[in-house]
Amino acid sequence: MRILLSTLLYLIFMSCQNGINGKSQKPQTQNLDTTKVSRYTVDQQLNGLLDSLRYCYVRNIKNSEDRLLEFYKKKPEDFKEDSLVYYTAVTSFFNADSTILKKILVFQGDSSRCGWIYSPKPYSSIAREWEGHFNKEMGSKVLIYAYLMGACGNDKNIPNDPDLIEEIFNKIQLTDFSHWLDAHQTLNKMELCRKFKEEKL
User: Fold this and answer.
1) Are the C-beta atoms of residues 173 and 150 closer than 8 Å to each other?
2) DSSP state, 43?
3) Among candidate residues 138, 47, 147, the one with its CA nearest the CA of residue 99
4) Which of 57, 69, 96, 132 has the smallest number of CB atoms closer than 10 Å to its CB?
5) Whose CA is closest to 106, among 19, 17, 12, 194?
6) For the chain, how many helices (H) and strands (E)?
7) Can you give the residue ranges of every domain in the chain?
8) CA 148 – CA 93 distance, rounded (Å)
9) Model's pTM, two decimal places?
10) Category of 67 on φ-ψ map: left (φ > 0), alpha (ψ -120 to 50) or beta
11) DSSP E strand stretches across 99-189
12) pLDDT tens-digit profile of 89-140?
């Protein structure tokens, strides 16, 4: 059933050009954040994509035999299905046109918990102060950075390294980025990436 859902999400995301504003229900998982967006109206296309990115725990798992699955309360078959959902969503994200950047900006000022980007490794010896309150504004900055870097030919992966994540959300200011994006709205995503590197990094 989940495989069918992921396939439908992929087709909807790739075929639609204009989203419909509204709220959608979060998938019910045992251990990931299922907080609904309250003060923020999120494009349904983006909301469906972010729901699938909540399975980011799969990046901490080596294979279906990894004992860490017990920590996440997952079975090997769950890991396989969740991996398909997650990596299909990642592909959809990087294949989207640059209008997705504007949609992501809806999370500016959103301090609610973010479960799309980062799932802490359970036995890490380093605990960063921000890990306990990683919010959707921080997460949106990571998505923006990942999308633009991917457009320039970098690896099409959403960063999950804590040091890089911290560098990103400290460097990008969403109000400034929103103005910058408006000023360069005629550029395609590769041109946006090059301009972003020249002017913002």
Assistant:
1) no
2) E
3) 147
4) 132
5) 19
6) 8, 2
7) 2-200
8) 11
9) 0.76
10) alpha
11) none
12) 999 999 999 999 999 999 999 999 998 887 777 777 777 888 888 999 999 9
